[in-house]
Amino acid sequence: MISHEWRKGLQPTHSDENGPSRHPREGGGPASWIPAFAGMTRKERPPKEHTPGKVYIVGAGPGAHDLITLRGLRALRLADVVFYDALVSPELLAEAPSADLIFVGKRCGRHPVEQHETVRMMIERARRGDIVVRLKGGDPMIYGRGGEEALACNEALIEYEIIPGVCSALGAASFAGIPLTHRGVASSVAFVTAHSAACLGKPDLSWGHLVKAVDTLVIFMGGSWLEPIASALVGFGLPPETAAAVVSHATHENQQTVVGSLRDIAQRVKEAHLATPVLIIVGAVAEFGETLNWFERQRLVASCTAAEDFPTSAL
């Protein structure tokens, strides 16, 4: 059931002297969604009263600020207001120095701004003629509630564009050196989440039937329940020796990866003191993280080199 709480306090868009407002589902192809001032800076844009507002639902990527797409970066630099999530880097927000920055992130059950209120504010600002950017970690359409926000814009007759981002699963896998598919090892992958509104206080394991259907499982939002998840996967039929990896703070300088098996991964993560957010990868491909983890190895080499270059006189 799709919630329509965001409608509270809003009035439908009406026609003006220039004719009826175009519904987002009407009209031409992709080019009709690009405003005439898309290539301009905010200072070069015409006055707001001469331009319609628009919402950009933008994927910020998996963490590192330089992993956002060029299209997403252009939208960010055009913004009048940015509604951003908890995992968005400060370097990205600096790309919109003149925009209003409004934090609407949610972490570990803490919701400083409820979702329906976020959507209501987005629509109100767009109706003022503002360029609104809803900036989300990863990709907005993979556990990012981007579909809900697009539906709200569609029903409110607000033009919108969904700009994909590098999904956190792909960023974590690439920076940890874990190919989610690999010839002769894994030809299928499934993204699942351990968190849902219907499973308060315990992991959502409704996807358990997939363990025998795919070669690689990528589990979002499971860091708080790693031990019960590993036990459940064994209960669903995976051998305890099945490889598993947990990636913390993927693509950030403090990224940390732990590789083990379902039998011991929870203990290994506990001993390594991994911090959330984490991504869990289960399947034979997880073993590649022990040899192909280029990012953390590169960081280690850089830190060792810096230590060797450090003058002993400074000690």
Give a summary of the structure in a few sentences.
The protein has helices spanning 70-78, 90-93, 115-127, 146-155, 168-176, 226-235, 265-272, 294-309; strands at 54-59, 81-84, 100-103, 131-136, 160-163, 189-193, 216-220, 243-248, 256-261, 278-282. With 315 residues, the protein is α/β, with parallel strands linked by helices.
Report on the structure:
The strands form two sheets. The protein has a five-stranded parallel β-sheet with strand order 3-2-4-1-5, with helices on both faces. The chain has a five-stranded mixed β-sheet with strand order 6-7-10-8-9, sandwiched between helices. It is built from eight helices and ten strands. It has helices at 70-78, 90-93, 115-127, 146-155, 168-176, 226-235, 265-272, 294-309; strands spanning 54-59, 81-84, 100-103, 131-136, 160-163, 189-193, 216-220, 243-248, 256-261, 278-282. It folds into two domains: 41-166, Cobalt-precorrin-4 Transmethylase, domain 1 (3-Layer(aba) Sandwich); 169-297, Tetrapyrrole methylase, C-terminal domain (Methyltransferase, Cobalt-precorrin-4 Transmethylase, Domain 2, 2-Layer Sandwich), CATH 3.30.950. Residues 11-34 have low confidence and may be disordered. The protein has 315 residues and is an alpha/beta fold. A hairpin with a 7-residue loop joins strand 8 and strand 9.
